[in-house]
Task: structure prediction
Amino acid sequence: MSAIAGPTTATVEGDQLRRSGTKTANKTGRRRRRNQSIRTGISAIIIVVWCLAPFYWMIVSSFRDVGYTFDTTPWFTHFTFDNYVTALSTNLGNHLGLALLNSLIIGGVTTVVCLLFGIFAAYALARLDFRFKGIVMGVILGASMFPGVALLTPLFQLFTNWGWIGTYQALILPDISFALPLTVYTLTSFFREMPWDLEEAARIDGCTPAQAFRKIILPLAAPAVFTTAILAFIASWNEYLIASQLTTDATQTVTVAIAGFTGSQPHQEPYTAVMAAGVVVTIPLVILVLIFQRRIVAGLTAGGVKG
Result:
């Protein structure tokens, strides 16, 4: 009879306590996840506002009449397109259109050259074993640590002797020296995370090393290559210090052109026209990022998870 007796009082109470504890733990877990989601959302909103507020104010100021330059109203008032007309007009000595073309040429050539050399250098550093590889990587990273102001005087003297002042190559070569170490370092980190099995399988199927690199490695590295290209282009696009000393009116970049802006009012700093020029200069970068945003995100997160 004792073998078929029902559960004791202690057993029932134990089951109830376990169920109660489980419910409490579930509620606590849900509350913790909800609070974490709220904190994450608030943090994201603060970061977005912090990053976009200056750009929003630039847009608002670019459409504001010059007589209300210092108006602190946080929305569009005294709306006008005159600032964009002033920014793009050459009658006042502003050459923003030519500067945009110059920056596109310089940034495009710099990006292509950095990728051409950076991809092969990064692949060699990641895949091949050779003596002094660590020293080579250290030299590449060390080259990117020299401040531009320390290089300005030697570059100016050198390019003056060569007759390069006011030419494209006088800006492209220094930009390459700044962007190439970043390209090599970024791509090296990505190539190190790629599995050897893919390349070995291609070699077994009859591919030469060059064919395996071109048909297998490069397509897989496309996200990182696009990300690196965007970073190199933006670095060249935003460079000002060297461009301010080595350019002429015919080769000045957008950063130099905006710094030398003149407005429609004499003896008055053209803040609203500068804001309009800033919006015009930012548009190509925004379009570029929007077009390649998926590849950029994939490149930034590549190598973050092993497996």
About this structure: DSSP finds 13 helices and no strands in the chain. The mean pLDDT is 82.
